[in-house]
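FAQ: What does the model actually see?

It sees only this:
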Amino acid sequence: MKITQNISLLPYNTFGIDVKADYFVEYSSIEELQKVLTSEIVTNQPFLHIGGGSNLLFLKDYSGVILHSAIKSIEKIREDDNHVYVEVGSGVIWDDLVAYCVSHGWGGVENLSLIPGEVGAAAVQNIGAYGVEIQDVISEVYAVAKETATVRAFTAEECRYGYRSSVFKGDLKGKYIITSVLLRLDKKPHFKLNYQHLEEEVLKNGDVNLQTIRQTIIAVRESKLPDTKVLGNAGSFFMNPVISKEYFIALQEKYPNIPHYTVSETEEKVPAGWLIDQCGWKGKKIGRAGVHDKQALVLVNTGGATGAEIVYLAQEIQQSVKEKYGIELTPEVNYI
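And it is asked to produce this:
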C-alpha cells in the first residue's frame, strides 16, 4: 500500500487540471482496500475513489483522501465450448485489456479499443463505442462496500446497466468500490460492424478479424480525438441525448438532415457532437477552454485551464443547444 500526502492530481486526470489532494492512497489487493476502509485515514475525513481520471473534472483541491486501485491481475477463470471467463483487476488499463484479449483471440471488446481509463471505472460507467458496451461482456462485478468493508458479487442484471449508467452511478453511487470484473468473451468471435461505416473501414485494412477491427478503430479514434498528453480532455464530454420519437419527428421537419439512431419504438438518440457543431462551437475557445476542431463533442484544456473554465464553456454550449433545438445536454464527465 502506498500513502502520499499533499499530492498533485495532475497525473491522475486526463483534463490536466492541476489540483492537489490531502492524501493519495493506492492499494493492490482486496485486503489492503479493506484495511484502508477501516482505518482512521478514511473514517475521519472525506474520500473519493478514482480510476484513470478520464471521466473527472476537478474544480478545486480535494480536501480529503483520494483512493486508487493498483489491482492489475488478468486471470482466466474457466471456459466452455463458446466462451472464456476472465477476471480482470479494477486497476488494469482498459486498452491494455483489449489488446490482451485480441492477442488471445477472444472477442467481445475489440470495438472498445483505445477508450481511456481503467477497468473498474469502465464497469461503473458502462463504456461504449461502435455499437458495443461493456455490459455486453460482463458476467459479474466484484466490489467492496465502503461502510462495512465486506465483499459482494453483483450479477450483470444487478448492475442495472443502461446507456452510460449503472447501479453504481444510481442507487448505489458512492457505496461500493469495484475490485475486479468477470468478463465473458467469445472463443468464436461474432463481429459487430454495423455501426456507421465501420465494416467499410475495416475492409480497407484487410480481412475482417479481431486485429483489423482493433487497428481500424484505433486509427479512427486517433484521427478524431486529441492525445490527452498534448491536449487535456476527457473524450466525449456530453452524453448523446435520447428524445421522444414524437419530438424527433418535429425536429426532423425543421432540420431534415438531423442524424439519429433508433433506441426503441418511442425514443430516438441524437448525436450530441452534431448538435454542438450545428451551433457553431467546433474549434471555438473561451479563455483557455475550447472545443476540439475535429470533434465537437470533445472539450479541451488548451493549456492551464481551470475546472471552472471548462464548466463555463460546457454551460454556454448547453444553453446554445437548448435554445436552438430544445434539447438538454447532460455531461458524461463528473464534476468534483
